[in-house]
TrEMBL record:
It comes from Talaromyces rugulosus. One of its GO terms (cellular component) is mitochondrial inner membrane. Belongs to the mitochondrial carrier (TC 2.A.29) family. This is Mitochondrial thiamine pyrophosphate carrier 1. The lineage of its organism: Eukaryota, Fungi, Dikarya, Ascomycota, Pezizomycotina. Solcar repeats lie at residues 20-104, 114-199, 215-299.
Amino acid sequence: MATTQDKKLPFGKIDLYSSRYFYACTLGGIIACGPTHTAVTPLDLVKCRRQVDPSIYKSNVSAWRSIFAKEGLRGVFFGWAPTLAGYSLQGAGKYGFYEVFKYWYGEQLFPNTNRTLVYLGASASAEFFADLALCPFEAIKVRMQTTLPPYAHNLRDGWKKVVAQDGIGGLYKGLYPLWARQIPYTMTKFATFEEAVNLIYRTLGGPKDSYSRLTQTGVSFAGGYLAGILCAIVSHPADVMVSKLNAERKAGEGAMTAVSRIYSKIGFVGLWNGLPVRIAMLGTLTGFQWLIYDSFKVFCGLPTTGGH
């Protein structure tokens, strides 16, 4: 029976691990990922272009000045539409499925398993499915952002061109490299976050429930920021290769053949182009994603993530 306090919650009382709980986590993932990735489109735009052609701009600031002078604010945020659509869908899968798999693996299938292994397995499983939703939009975004003049001027135009040239399969040409980038990234992001949050609470000296919800969401932001820095480093070589593949892959060329050809051209050092920008971008991005996600859970009357 619902209490007066439960009725004050926006969606009523939500039982942990119920279908409504997982739906709420999925919605939280959309809110956390779509807008935040879209907000850093200017960083992403310059990062992708410099990964493909390191000589295109002297610095990030000069890049934004040049783009703004020629195209205005719209040019600085070029590629925002596929970013918003793709990362909203990815956020739904990443956070929603993570909560599902963490419950299945940690509470149902392997209750006595080391918790870090549960975090790693749950995040890898979640990202596998999330990338199926992200891949078409990522392919269009990267082609739009890394070609001059642009391959397409908007999401609809890009979708039509890719399908016309390569069929629906063209939207998934970068799926394997995307998995190679995103799965290690997400495993690092979620496992590091969970461990960082636990460490912060141990350092503070009290159980999570003894702190206010404001403090708890602050811990989520700090844990997320630390996780973002580490996962940016872990996943960066694959991120460079995804950008290169979407921009330079030849018609009919196999994925591994393209990877080998591109690597022979850029070498090991080339895989690290744009890393400082990506660290700044993902540290901030990941911190705010966890802050938004856990704030939404608090808004729904649910506990924040980690620290148990």
